[in-house]
Design a protein that fits this description.
CATH superfamily of the largest domain: Malonyl-Coenzyme A Acyl Carrier Protein, domain 2
Largest sheet: 4 strands, antiparallel
CATH topology of the largest domain: Malonyl-Coenzyme A Acyl Carrier Protein, domain 2
Number of helices: 13
Distance between the termini: 25 Å
Length: 291
């Protein structure tokens, strides 16, 4: 994912991240073997770094952004892009966050499943089939809700979902029940990590997955970022919050188009432009306020 950026000025992001992190990182976005990227820490660092490469390349073109937001790990990217968190602290935080959530997943095994065509109410109903064992993990978009929990809890929720008319329940190939109470060990350990990091007032509000609200402060991001790993990602509501703030178009930075797809379901009238390679930057006109 990082190869197109190798000779671009934005590559300075990788140099800065390596200097702060104290170990090589370029290989994660250039030529890392699949078995290395199957590890949570390495995979999440690769995603974070490719997103930051794209943001570095366009940040001077984005004039007066209305807000920043990111899905799950992407919230770390959003905090860095907004200036609320430095790149150096952000990379260190992402690595420890990944390590702690994977440790929680190892200690409390779980699964996740996407309920396609489901409403939030149907997903909540499905989770009642396994009380205290399955929960909503992602409210991604209309018709796409992810549930997670213990293996038995998710299985029971999927059975119930089909009984109440959900179109399809698809197991996800992930290593744990992320964004559920099974991640509480990680949430409890993160404040000590975050205490050593500095937060600043962002250049524009950052919409938190935690509560789907826009925040312009620097004081509470340690608490939000810690609790974030053990509560649902409220992405559908976050998109609506950004529109409510005045956003009329969106930029998705980094590899892939998952967020663009979710935006088309949630705010279909708002255009989304993806920035994944230098070619995407070359055709991007300066973005005025409203983006």
């Amino acid at each position: 994912m990082g190869a197109p950026w190798r000779d671009h000025p934005a590559w300075s992001v990788i140099d800065r991240a390596e200097a702060a992190f104290g170990e090589p990182l370029a290989n994660l976005v250039l030529d890392a073997p699949a078995e290395l990227l199957a590890r949570t820490r390495e995979a999440q660092l690769a995603v974070l770094l490719t997103s930051l490469l794209a943001w570095e390349a366009i940040r001077d073109r984005v004039v007066e952004p209305v807000a920043f937001a990111g899905h799950s790990l992407g919230q770390v990217t959003a905090l860095i892009a907004s200036g609320a968190l430095s790149l150096e602290d952000g990379v260190r935080f992402a690595a420890r966050r990944a390590e702690l959530t994977q440790a929680a997943a190892d200690a409390h095994p779980g699964k996740m499943a996407a309920l396609l065509g489901a409403t939030v109410e149907q997903a909540e109903d499905a989770c009642t089939a396994a009380p205290d064992a399955a929960w909503i993990a992602n409210d991604n978009a209309p018709g796409q809700v992810v549930v997670a929990g213990t293996p038995g809890g998710v299985e029971a929720a999927c059975v119930r979902a089909k009984e109440i008319g959900v179109k399809r329940a698809t197991p996800l190939n992930v290593g744990g029940a992320f964004h559920t109470p099974l991640m509480r060990d990680a949430a409890d350990a993160l404040p000590a990590i975050l205490e050593a990091m500095s937060f600043a007032v962002p250049a524009a509000p950052v919409v938190s997955n935690l509560d789907a609200e826009a925040h312009s402060d620097s004081d509470e991001w340690r608490t939000r970022s810690a609790n974030h790993v053990a509560v649902p990602v409220r992405w559908r509501e976050s998109m609506l919050t950004m529109v409510g703030l005045g956003a009329t178009s969106f930029l998705e930075v980094g590899n892939g188009s998952m967020l663009a797809g979710l935006a088309k379901r949630t705010v279909p009238d708002a255009p989304v432009r993806g920035i994944a390679t230098p070619d995407d930057v070359a055709v991007l006109a300066p973005q005025q306020s409203g983006a």
